[in-house]
Design goal:
about 160 residues; alpha+beta; Alpha-D-Glucose-1,6-Bisphosphate, Chain A, domain 4; eight-stranded antiparallel sheet; about 25% helix; about 45% strand
């Protein structure tokens, strides 16, 4: 399996509660996040959302689709959302939000391993292309959430 760590930061001129709601309600991502094709709730989890499981279908610019399930492991509105993924991407993801005046800073950390044989086989040479594809998808998300909230996207950065 090939390991990847992607960190993306969005800086939005929007209230943290509005940004939190948009990020937390992932079942509503497909209309505004171009790369997210489908989100299917598998199980609800507890009253805070911990234990919630959703299946995600993603497709960015490269001609392949990724399907994985993510189980929510931590919910601290409006600042922290974490989960573990399984399927074609296995690992962990986290959303960290903070307010800097009228600006909300959103940090998404994605630490995953690919399970598809072709991706693992190509990883030594295709890693930069996979990283580029992820960056494009996250830029689409930043632009989409800004449009959804009627906010200005001040920055999208990748580490």
């Amino acid at each position: 399996m090939a390991d990847y760590t992607f960190i993306t930061v969005w800086r939005l001129e929007a209230p943290i509660d509005a940004v939190w709601d948009a990020v937390y309600q992932s079942e509503r991502w497909p209309p505004w996040w171009r790369s997210v094709r489908q989100v299917i709730e598998i199980s609800k989890g507890d009253e805070d959302g911990v234990g919630n499981v959703r299946r995600y279908v993603w497709r960015s610019r490269l001609p392949y689709t990724l399907i994985f399930e993510l189980q929510v492991t931590r919910v601290e509105p409006p600042v922290k959302l974490e989960g573990v993924s399984s399927g074609e991407l296995a690992g962990r993801g986290a959303w960290d939000l903070s307010a800097e005046g009228a600006v909300t800073v959103v940090r998404n950390t994605w630490e995953v391993r690919t399970s598809q044989a072709w991706m693992n086989l190509l990883a030594p040479v295709a890693r930069p292309v996979f990283a580029w594809n992820h960056a494009i998808s996250m830029r689409d998300g930043g632009e989409g959430i800004a449009k959804l909230l009627g906010a200005r996207l001040l920055e999208v950065s990748h580490r």
